[in-house]
């Protein structure tokens, strides 16, 4: 395995896929309110994706049964949409991935259901800052390890746990490609970041320890200590001038 360098033509196609992904994610966020189910979000994302002529990448991916991941409260990632009813004060990460013109785009955000407490708002805001600052330290000629160093520093300041079992990833013709983009500090600085690389950064930040486990359904990832977990994800293309956030709508 090695990190693929994408041509300008390929990046243009990934840009289209990422724009669609970001639009569907934003629209899915608009339907979040107390009383809806996570299945309602799945139905919306599935239909919007198909209507745009794309395929929801999660559906049947290694057997995943739905078209989007919905991860509520102490669920870290890979939550399976179902009959769970959202209630005031919950948080929910919606993770959308589209396959359009042969290329994947991947993005997620954590949304508030109704009104959050200040403690919950701080967790979610910090998770988003971890993503934004992680992106900003990614530069051509730099190292992937700098992303994790930066994110770990931010989380440590507040005493939050950074999940270690799941990471960002290269993306393109495949949903998950090299490299693995770690969100925590390691001794190894990792691969060099080069122009033409396209990858995600998607830190999962716990209001507690770093530990997680997988539920009996084989997918749902939960915090070991029951703490809340928040996540944000963007797909980024490295240009000679720095990171272009392909899943950011302006
Ligand atoms: N979208 C997730 C990611 O950011 C992966 C979900 S895999 C699935 O990498 F099968 F659960 F959909
Ligand atoms: Co991803
Ligand atoms: Co994702």
Question: Helices, strands, pairings?
Answer:
Layout lengths: L7 H23 L7 H14 L3 E2 L12 E4 L2 E3 L13 E10 L2 E10 L5 H19 L8 H14 L2 E2 L5 E3 L6 E5 L16 E4 L2 E3 L5 E3 L6 E3 L5 E3 L2 E6 L2 E4 L5
Antiparallel strand pairs: 1-4, 2-4, 3-12, 4-5, 6-10, 7-8, 9-14, 10-13, 11-12, 14-15
Helix pairs in contact: 1-2, 3-4
What tags apply to this protein structure?
four-stranded antiparallel beta sheet; 250 residues; three-stranded antiparallel beta sheet; binds cobalt (II) ion; single chain; globular; alpha+beta; binds 2-amino-4-trifluoromethylsulfanyl-butyric acid
Polypeptide structure, described:
- The chain is globular.
- The chain has helices at 8-30, 38-51, 118-136, 145-158, and strands at 55-56, 69-72, 75-77, 91-100, 103-112, 161-162, 168-170, 177-181, 198-201, 204-206, 212-214, 221-223, 229-231, 234-239, 242-245.
- Strand 14 and strand 15 form a beta hairpin.
- The model has no long low-confidence stretch (mean pLDDT 98).
- By secondary structure, the chain is α+β, with helices and mostly antiparallel strands.
- It has one domain (8-241): Creatine Amidinohydrolase.
- It contains four helices and 15 strands.
- Strands 1, 2, 4 and 5 form a four-stranded antiparallel β-sheet that branches. Strands 3-12-11 form a three-stranded antiparallel β-sheet, with no helix packed on it.
- The longest helix has 23 residues, at 8-30.
- One cobalt (II) ion binds next to loops.
């Amino acid at each position: 395995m090695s990190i693929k360098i994408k041509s300008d033509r390929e990046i243009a196609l990934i840009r289209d896929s990422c724009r669609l992904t970001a639009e569907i994610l934003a629209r899915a966020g608009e339907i979040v309110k107390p009383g809806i189910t996570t299945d309602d979000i799945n139905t919306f994302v599935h239909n919007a994706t198909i209507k745009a002529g794309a395929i929801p990448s999660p559906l049947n991916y290694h057997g995943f049964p739905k078209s989007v991941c919905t991860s509520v409260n102490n669920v870290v990632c890979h939550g399976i949409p179902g009959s769970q009813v959202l209630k005031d004060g919950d948080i929910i990460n919606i993770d959308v991935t589209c396959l359009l013109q042969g290329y994947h785009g991947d993005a997620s955000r954590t949304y508030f259901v109704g009104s959050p407490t200040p403690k919950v708002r701080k967790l979610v805001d910090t998770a988003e800052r971890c993503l934004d600052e992680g992106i900003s330290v990614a530069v051509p000629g730099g190292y992937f390890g700098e992303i994790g160093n930066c994110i770990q520093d931010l989380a440590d300041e507040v005493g939050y746990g950074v999940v270690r079992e799941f990471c960002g990833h290269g993306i393109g013709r495949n949903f998950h490609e090299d490299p693995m983009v770690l969100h925590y500090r390691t001794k190894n600085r990792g691969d060099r970041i080069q122009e033409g690389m396209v990858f995600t950064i998607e830190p999962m930040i716990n209001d507690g320890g770093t530990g997680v486990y997988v539920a009996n359904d084989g997918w749902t990832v939960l915090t070991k200590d029951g703490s809340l977990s928040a996540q944000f994800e963007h797909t980024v293309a490295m240009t000679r001038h720095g990171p272009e956030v392909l899943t950011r709508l302006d």
